[in-house]
Amino acid sequence: MAGSNEIGIGMIGYAFMGKSHTLGYRDVPLIAPEAVPRPRLVSLYGRDAQKLEAARNRLGWEQGVTDWRDIVADDRIQLFDNSGPNALHVEPTIAAARAGKHVFCEKPLGPTADDAFAMWDAAHWSGVKHMCAYNYRFFPALQLAREIIQSGEIGEILHYRSQFLVSSSLDEKRQKSWRDDRQAAGAGALGDLGAHHIDLSRFLMDADPTTVQAVTRIKVGAASDGGRIETDDQFAALFDYDNGALGVVEASRVAGGHLVTSRIEVDGSKGSIAFSMQRLNELRVAGADKAFRTIPVMRSADPYQSNWFPPGHPLGWVDTFSHEAVHILGAIAGLHEVAPIGATFRDGYYCSEIIDAAIRAASLGQRVNISYRSVVE
Ligand SMILES: NC(=O)c1ccc[n+]([C@@H]2O[C@H](COP(=O)([O-])OP(=O)(O)OC[C@H]3O[C@@H](n4cnc5c(N)ncnc54)[C@H](O)[C@@H]3O)[C@@H](O)[C@H]2O)c1
């Protein structure tokens, strides 16, 4: 067992998200109050022993294992972190939850809604803490946006509008990866990028979509190594929400001039809010005067600011992983719940149900209703 104020962690994946989650854990002693347990980086899983050893050494984990079941069986580990590809989220996370480990899993929760539901069900009935890594919830400016929206300051919410635009599919040297494989990923731009904004719509408005109309397209059908691309690289959808709002969500991997653009706007009857990840320390807010003003979300009372540095020092995208790490560890220690700030596996399942409905709507060329299952029926 890890020491009394320590939580032992086992993690799947050591590439993009494995590195981001490791950085998040390493910040915990620097930014979290003492009551938050300190993470101990016990065990890292990867398939290739040589690459795993190099990653283990670089990222600072105690041991590497080439079978994730060794993490599930390891008594020193209380938190199972799944930062692997989507298809690998399901069986290991369910096994870990059933073994009594708290579970923290990357988004989308599973490649399909059925997978995500099975994960929520297992975590719920195992009684462990569960969090899906929708890290955009941990931008201070979006937490402020949520507060403003939910306070009623911008009135009745009428529109949610978002765009997540990258150009990675246009890279001529692109090799086929798990992201291009329908079974391994579930969806493309929709599940990878759109998923964040679908989750944020629920987070910001505290509302769920009830219907969807969508279009998905595969613009680039083959990678440079000849591998077939099976997942969408263009996605657009219209949603009706149960608060009466109309949602427009767009995502693309073929937006030629964009590295990573993530923009969100919410309009209410008395005002509007605008956020762009390129200016992530700012929130733009307009009231009845129709004049947008820019709030620097770096004041001492803004979320997380006092944990870091004196007010006014900007945070970055990577800091969301540190905020997430503090949040899940604090939830395990009973300092607060995962919800509503963190996405639970219920939230992860809801997003996956919405993604599946959008895929259905796109393939039928029709508007479809979205219904959600419950683990307690
Ligand atoms: N929260 C975010 O902002 C964000 C950003 C990117 C990715 N993600 C999510 O994080 C997860 C991981 O994505 P990533 O970008 O780190 O992927 P990645 O491709 O960078 O890394 C995946 C890792 O898993 C390994 N891997 C691939 N297939 C495997 C298999 N079948 N069995 C075991 N290992 C395998 C790869 O070797 C690699 O080390 C995905 O669920 C993705 O959707 C989230």
TrEMBL record:
GO terms for molecular function: nucleotide binding; oxidoreductase activity. Keywords: Oxidoreductase. Residues 8-131 form the Gfo/Idh/MocA-like oxidoreductase N-terminal domain. Residues 143-273 form the GFO/IDH/MocA-like oxidoreductase domain. This is Gfo/Idh/MocA family oxidoreductase. It comes from Mesorhizobium waimense. The lineage of its organism: Bacteria, Pseudomonadati, Pseudomonadota, Alphaproteobacteria, Hyphomicrobiales.
